[in-house]
Amino acid sequence: MYRLTAVTKDYQTNGKRVSALTDVSLTIDDGEWLAVKGPTGQGKSTLLQLLGGLSRPTSGSILVSGEDLSRMPDTRITRLRAETIGFVFQFFNLLPTLTAQENVEAALVPLGIRSSERRRRAAEALDSVGLSDRATHLPSELSGGQQQRVAIARALVKEPRVLLADEPTGNLDEDTAAEIIDLLEQRWRSRGLTVVLVTHDNAIARRAQRVAVMRRGRLTIAPSQTSALPDV
Ligand code: ADP
Ligand code: ADP
């Protein structure tokens, strides 16, 4: 699904250069579940943003199904994000003035799907995360776990090939976190999705097939069952 070769990402802040990613090479297979872990400030979010086409590498190449993200025109990247890549975030990122149903439908607007079809598919997606009875609620009327379910429905309603999740359980209690991970795992198994999930939690990282451990912008791969995952 992805092939990263010698990817570096630098940021300029106050005239100083910070290297958020340094010489990262990585292949992520179709249908793989990869966890990314490491302490704060090591480049995990930067890696996810690059995989999602939300920013571009300073150097190196990122192939998505053979196409080079670092050379793609903006319009092509926008389309790739709309069709192929679903995002889930720590703080859900739902639009506060839209209902659960409208938040999910919003993901289908850029695909040019007509409104009756959008309504039908969004209702189905909400049903599949167990939230049919909350369709007309605003995000502020839902619990954290319910909001994250809406966000998952929004990410998956377009049937993407990739799901990128940045600490999707970081703001949830342990039981709710476990439910959310179970839900993601079900979807991953049933749809052949490729999942890249950033987490601080070793128990969650171990659910993945491989774990990418990030330290100061460098990445090493560990099998998920190793006893040597860092405690952060
Ligand atoms: P995480 O919660 O994954 O540890 P951070 O809190 O470090 O992520 O960063 C959250 C977001 O803010 C990221 O999208 C990152 O790109 C951006 N960010 C992090 N550090 C800075 C910074 N020094 N200046 C500007 N943006 C930053
Ligand atoms: P993590 O997700 O592991 O917490 P990030 O990818 O958010 O790490 O950040 C890695 C490094 O890059 C940090 O030093 C952070 O401050 C810096 N950084 C991230 N995003 C930005 C940005 N937009 N502008 C400047 N510095 C950033």
TrEMBL record:
SUPFAM superfamilies the UniProt entry points to: P-loop containing nucleoside triphosphate hydrolases
UniProt keyword list: ATP-binding, Nucleotide-binding, Transport
InterPro entries named in the record: AAA+_ATPase (IPR003593), ABC_transporter-like_ATP-bd (IPR003439), ABC_transporter-like_CS (IPR017871), ABC_transpr_LolD-like (IPR015854), MacB-like_ATP-bd (IPR017911), P-loop_NTPase (IPR027417)
Matches recorded under Gene3D superfamilies: P-loop containing nucleotide triphosphate hydrolases
UniProt keyword RNA-binding present: no
Domain called ABC transporter: residue spans: 2-232
Keyword S-adenosyl-L-methionine: no
Molecular functions per Gene Ontology: ATP binding
Pfam families in alphabetical order: ABC_tran
PANTHER family associated with the record: ABC TRANSPORTER ABCH.1 (PTHR24220:SF86), IMPORT ATP-BINDING PROTEIN (PTHR24220)
Protein's UniProt name: ABC transporter ATP-binding protein
Biological source species: Catenulispora yoronensis
